[in-house]
Design a protein that fits this description.
Blueprint (H helix, E strand, L loop, with lengths): L4 E2 L4 E2 L7 H14 L8 H13 L5 E5 L4 H6 L2 E2 L14 H13 L4 E5 L3 H7 L1 H10 L1 E7 L5 E6 L7 E3 L2 E3 L2
Parallel strand pairs: 3-4, 3-5
Antiparallel strand pairs: 1-2, 5-7, 6-7, 8-9
Helix pairs in contact: 4-6, 5-6
Length: 171
């Protein structure tokens, strides 16, 4: 362990190796090269397109599903420092408090929850669940082209600029 490493989670600190601009450029180039590859189920493809069209590149998205490719293909950053909620990772009280502090600092117009993971969020991440249920309102509860059910919640303090398939758009 070096001085530049956090012992609890082995997170290397220091100057960033890649900037957000570099990562977005790589994502765009890769998407052009891999245009025939599908990033997932119909609902995942729908959500990627929705997030890319209806949020700005500076926005963050809280996604409660194990679909980390959504961030890459939508070219959006994950909110609260959480690319996914899985197997109680980062679920201690101090870690949840840190996630909520991040969510409070970030612009997160949309929260998307796969319905089968709602109970996990409530039981394993009660502080995050509490934040989401008090700071966001439900905009939709439905499937997006397959049998997976989703909840889309939005920040009521933000005014949508338009809608796409009845969902609010913030960009």
């Amino acid at each position: 362990m070096t001085a530049a490493t956090s012992g609890a989670q082995s997170i290397v600190t220091g100057a960033p190796v890649l900037t957000t601009t570099t990562v977005r450029g790589l994502a765009a180039a890769t998407r052009r090269i891999s245009s025939s590859w599908s990033p997932g189920s119909a609902s995942v493809v729908y959500l990627i397109r929705y997030l890319n069209a209806c949020t700005s590149p500076e926005d963050r998205v809280l996604l409660v599903a194990y679909e980390p490719q959504v961030f890459y293909f939508s070219e959006r950053l994950f909110a609260g420092g959480m690319a996914y909620f899985h197997q109680r990772r980062f679920s201690s009280e101090p870690e949840q408090a840190m996630i909520v502090r991040r969510l409070q600092r970030e612009r997160v117009p949309v929260v998307i929850i796969e319905e089968e993971r709602l109970r996990m969020l409530q039981d394993d991440y009660p502080q995050v669940y509490g934040h989401v249920t008090t700071q966001y309102v439900e905009a939709a509860r439905r499937a997006f082209g397959d049998d997976r059910r989703w909840r889309v919640l939005v920040d009521p303090k933000l005014e949508p600029l338009s809608t796409r398939d009845t969902l609010p758009c913030y960009a």
